[in-house]
Amino acid sequence: MLPLLKPINYLAPMLVSALFLLVLFSGYLEFPSFSSPIPIPTSSVRVRGPKSPFTDLAAAFELWDSQVGCDRFRSAHARWVANASAIQADGGDCAAVGMGHVSVLVKGWTWIPDSMNNLYSCRCEMTCLWTKSPVLADHPDAMLFESATPPLTRKKGDPLRVYMDLEASRKPSGFEDIFIGYHAKDDVQSTYAGTLFHKNRNYQVSSQKRNDILVYWSSSRCLPQRNQLAQKFFSFISYHSFGKCLNNVGGPNVALSLYPECSMGENSVPHWWDHLHCAMSHYKFVLAIENTMTESYVTEKLYYALDSGAVPIYFGAPNVWDFVPPNSIIDGSKFSSLEELASYIKELADDPIAYAEYHAWRRCGVMGNYGKTRATSLDTLPCRLCEFVSRKGGRNARAL
């Protein structure tokens, strides 16, 4: 029997090779072409129309609707799974909420806007007074500090000490009873996805996108590492930089001369922030680079771009997809080089269907973790903090 094995072993590879060639040339098997466009990262709906430079966003949406549509997009992202643990869940069982009313006194200077001062109606039939006035909160259950250090000691009967640090380092003061940070592991989480940080702005969204200049950037804190990344990327693509860093538009206050419709009014004194969103909306892409690449540290830089109707090109938190809708951003870290990233951006800018798909999440109501990200922002902090204070017992909490 052994002599028969030799011809069989010899013929088997030949038969497999012949079958492979038959399948290949019959058209059932195709190899990707090196000249094929780069596929859209994170997207399950692969669309690629002919090269067609465009400026009309509404027309791009119409093309996408006719060739892809929301049903297909929803189906493609039906199994989208974000890390639920990146966002804190709600407070849980209301039975543990022992206080029907909680007051929080905000102490010293803070980024928290005065417009948050209010009496809130919260879940579990609880009310929450949030104020900077010691007159209104004459007997507070908690005192919140951000720029100042809380009291070094606390005895039972004193207000709970709350300390907030939303910077990347997330450093507790060491003297707080409750810590607020941007991470889900903190006592109370506050993301940057809210709107209260940026009121009194022109939110007009342009229906026309520039095709001559593709990328918007504005940064006035010129950190070396961020500047180097941006400068190298900009060597491959057209851009406008409106801040102090790498400015190429003639100064930091020229946006209104380019886009006068973004003015807040004839009698208003212009500030760089009041027309930020409106100016961004004229560009197809906005570059968003965080100060540091830290887990869950996703700041307003990204959310401003989403709010403006542009597509963010993002460099930052490695788990950014836990905080944004499916197929809503371009994660720059997923490309092998900045040149490859720039090539992809240029192709996307000339493909109205593929570009429109980056807006499909908004138009089709596909959110991923984004709804929870918004719901865990500064906008809802008063009620969530008051509930945490209530669960700890407020002034009756034992001293640590």
From TrEMBL:
Keyword Transmembrane recorded: yes
UniProt KW Membrane keyword: yes
EC number(s) stated in the UniProt entry for this protein: 2.4.1.-
Gene Ontology cellular component annotations, sorted alphabetically: Golgi cisterna membrane
Topology of the protein relative to the lipid bilayer: Single-pass type II membrane protein
InterPro entries linked: Alpha-1_3/4-FUT_pln (IPR017177), Glyco_tran_10_C (IPR055270), Glyco_trans_10 (IPR001503), GT10-like_C_sf (IPR038577)
Signal peptide bounds: none
Pfam families in UniProt: Glyco_transf_10 (PF00852)
Residues of the Fucosyltransferase C-terminal domain: 212-393
Pathway terms, separated by semicolons: Protein modification; protein glycosylation
Subcellular localization(s) per the UniProt record: Golgi apparatus, Golgi stack membrane
Keyword set, alphabetical order: Glycosyltransferase, Golgi apparatus, Membrane, Transferase, Transmembrane
Gene3D superfamilies in the cross-refs: Glycosyl transferase family 10, C-terminal domain
Superkingdom: Eukaryota
GO molecular function, one term: alpha-(1->3)-fucosyltransferase activity
Class of this enzyme: transferase
Listed PANTHER family: ALPHA- 1,3 -FUCOSYLTRANSFERASE, ALPHA-(1,3)-FUCOSYLTRANSFERASE 10
Protein family according to the UniProt entry: Belongs to the glycosyltransferase 10 family.
Protein name: Fucosyltransferase
